[in-house]
Structure formats: structure tokens, C-alpha cells
Amino acid sequence: MASLIDNDTHRTEIFDSLPYYDNDLEKNPILREKVERELAREPKPPQTLHPRVPPPIELFKDKPGLAAELARVEAHQPLAPLDTIRYQLPAPTSTPGTDEEWQQALKNAQSQLEHQRIRHTNLALLQTYGPNAWRIHNYLLEATAKQAEATLEELKQRTTDINRDRKNSQTRIGNQLTSLENKWTELISSILQIEMANVALDAEVDRLNKKEAELASM
């Protein structure tokens, strides 16, 4: 942990790590092995989610048909073929056929005719209003996509700027740490040299005192 005092603002900044500056693991492989062993001894994180993490969203909870279709798509199962039986016009099975069978076949034919009429009406409405509706829909989709792309680019730029600022700040702080460490090493070396000189001077003083005592006793 590094602690630096900014002389301009007189405030202390504490940095737990400087990943853009610290490279002790690259310089010392033994230290890397020690760190990896310590990390291996750490307990594994719990499998449960944090209490603040919202629960998973259950899609189409009240719509079983859509839920079943989503499950089919997730399972990569093919789409079930269309039921074409209801679009057929079966005749009575017996010959010449009973009145009830002919009434059922007639009702089925009327239903098919009405279905085709509704389809024809829907196709006419789609031909009249569909192109403009799809143009508007596509325009809205393109606008939404452009907005999302712009937001993504903005976030990427902000991330790049933050990383650049972090790198510049940590490099500047790292240079200060290196300068302070070099000064500290120089001061320690100077103190050791002074202590060694003091020891030599003490020895020289003792030698002179002994010599003076010998001369005085003669």
C-alpha cells in the first residue's frame, strides 16, 4: 500500500495497488509462485448470489404457449408442421352420405370460405397500409440501433479515457515512489557510512587515549 501527500491540495491519497507500475511478479518468479500458493489456499467464493442481486426473471409466466415455444427454441427443436387438416374439405365418408354428414361438410365449407374471405381482406389491408407501417417500424429500429451504438461507443471511449488516466496517474505516482525509494536508500547508505565513520573515530580515540596513557606513565 502506498501513501502519498499532494503538496498542492495537502491531501493524502492511499493506493492499495498500482497494477500499471508494480511488476514484482514479473521480476521475481518465486514471488509469483508464493502468491499463487496463497491464492490456492483461499476459500472458494460462495455459490449463492449476493442478496442485492435480483432473482432471475421468469419469462412468459402467465403465457404457457409462449413459454413452451421459448423452451422449444432453447432446446433447438424443429418447429412443428402446420396442421393442414382443418383447411381441407372432406366429403361424407359414406355413399351417398347422410343429411348430418352433408350438413357438417357444408358448415366446414362455409367456415373455409369465410376464412379465405378474411385472409383476402387482411392481404388487401396489408397491401395498402403494410409498406408504410414496415417503413416506420424499420426507421424506429434503425434509430434505436444507432442510439445503442452511440451509447456503446461513448462507454468504450469513457473506458479508454479512464484506463488512460489510471495509467498516467499510476505511472506518475510510481515515479514518485521510485524517487522516494532511491532517496531513502541513499539516506540509509549515508547513515551507515556515518555510523561506520563514528565507529572508526571511536576506535581512533581509544587508541590515542591508550597511547597518551602509556606516554604519561613513562
Automatic annotation (TrEMBL):
Pfam families listed in its UniProt record: BCAS2 (PF05700)
An example Gene Ontology CC term for this record: catalytic step 2 spliceosome
InterPro entries: SPF27
Locations listed in the record: Nucleus
Keywords, sorted A to Z: Coiled coil, mRNA processing, mRNA splicing, Nucleus, Spliceosome
GO biological process, one term: RNA splicing
Spans through the membrane: none
Coiled coil: 99-172
Similarity field: Belongs to the SPF27 family.
Protein name: Breast carcinoma amplified sequence 2
Organism: Suillus plorans
